[in-house]
Amino acid sequence: MIGVYHPGSSVLHRMPALAKLALLAATVTATALVGSLPALGIVAAATLGLFALARIPVRVAWRQVSPILWVLAFAVPVQWIFAGWEAAATMGVRLVLAVALAAVYTMTTQVSATLDAMQVLLRPFARWIDPDRVGLALALAIRCVPLLADLVREVLEARKARGAEGSLTALAVPVIVRTLRTADHLGEALMARGVDD
Amino acid sequence: MSAIRFEGVSHRFDGELVVDDVSLELTERRIGIVGANGSGKSTLARMINGLVTPTSGTVTVDGLDVARHGREVRRRVGFVFTNADTQIVMPTVREDVAFTLRRHRLDAATATARVDAVLDRFGLAELADRPAHRLSGGQKQLLALAAVLVGEPAIVVADEPTTLLDARNARRIAEHFATLDEQLVVVSHQLELLESFDRVIVMEAGRIVADDAPEPALDAYRALIG
């Protein structure tokens, strides 16, 4: 969800986030329940159709789906050894399809739309849970990933520049201190934007 | 113009006196605050938005006590931080600007129109759906300013908004500041940014040591830092 939204005006882009979330949940559940490879092949064809419908370039789609292949490189052989090739293939295809379907969702839905959908879902529980706060917490969690990735990269560069490449202390201490300081700044910025009012 | 008033304001942080008995009335359109690191200028600026409350004395904005009416004050006073990265909350440019309007409870069409207008004004319309964290430093600071202005504050306070920028981007931010109709309070080390302002305040060790038109005030600051 971190910056993978692919702008567009397709039917999928225009569909309400809540409807897409419901469809995603239903399709992934159905994929998990389908046991035969031919049936999964049909779901795979339909998923490719969704990428085409959303006009997502193959290169962009591949970037979202390919990381799961590293997991499969270990999981499929293990499954093959213990449960046979058919079970291994079924599990592999199911996982790829789940990731691909989730990618269709994230690439056609802005985070703010997802947050609004979450708030609608949580509204019946508003007595116990503040939907706005949950939405904000999710948004911040998503936002903090690139922020912390940049921070770690800078600390790694600084550590290298000081010739302390192997030192865990030279990585952990500045990362923790800067993370806490960044959290303070982010909190202050949220307050300035009236979030705590 | 709004009236920002400091009356006998002091602030202690970790036992240290950061702002020492400051009394001021700010009614001019463009006000600059300069001072060495640790002089208390950022703390003073933060008090206008209620991010810092005084240990003693009162700060009021249009008669509203910042310590007691933080919510109303923050609707009137927008704040731009030095590091725009920590001010960006949402993943894309458009979403981050729109985030400011969530507390305004506007209808979707009005909110979208206001977001589009401000994105257009700051040359960010083409970047609207881009991930905010992938913008350049200058674009991020423009986004931070756009996210503040979309809330239509009466006052914009900026704490060293050009410190992390190169000369070109600093100039772009300064040009945008020049076009603002809102009352502007800028803390800066870049003295040329403040030369065209209406009033400049010089701080040293938590106290105001000069408060004048830009030329004499900046001369006093130059003399102070040697």
From TrEMBL, chain A:
Transmembrane spans: 21-53, 65-83, 95-113
Secretion signal span: none
Keywords: Membrane, Transmembrane, Transmembrane helix
Main location: membrane
Subcellular location(s) of the protein: Membrane
Coiled coil: none
InterPro entries to which the protein is assigned, alphabetical: ABC/ECF_trnsptr_transmembrane
Gene Ontology annotations for the cellular component aspect, listed alphabetically: plasma membrane
PANTHER family referenced in this protein's UniProt entry, alphabetically: PROTEIN ABCI12, CHLOROPLASTIC (PTHR33514:SF13)
Protein name as annotated: Energy-coupling factor transporter transmembrane protein EcfT
Automatic annotation (TrEMBL), chain B:
Source organism (scientific name): Agromyces bracchium
Domain ABC transporter: 4-225
Entry's family note: Belongs to the ABC transporter superfamily.
Gene Ontology cellular-component terms listed: ATP-binding cassette (ABC) transporter complex
Keywords linked to the UniProt accession: ATP-binding, Nucleotide-binding, Transport
Domain of life: Bacteria
CDD domains cross-referenced by the UniProt entry: ABC_cobalt_CbiO_domain1 (cd03225)
Upper taxonomic lineage: Bacteria, Bacillati, Actinomycetota, Actinomycetes, Micrococcales
InterPro entries xref list: AAA+_ATPase (IPR003593), ABC_transporter-like_ATP-bd (IPR003439), ABC_transporter-like_CS (IPR017871), ABC_transpr_CbiO/EcfA_su (IPR015856), ECF_ABC_transporter_ATP-bd (IPR050095), P-loop_NTPase (IPR027417)
GO molecular function, one term: ATPase-coupled transmembrane transporter activity
The protein's name: ATP-binding cassette domain-containing protein
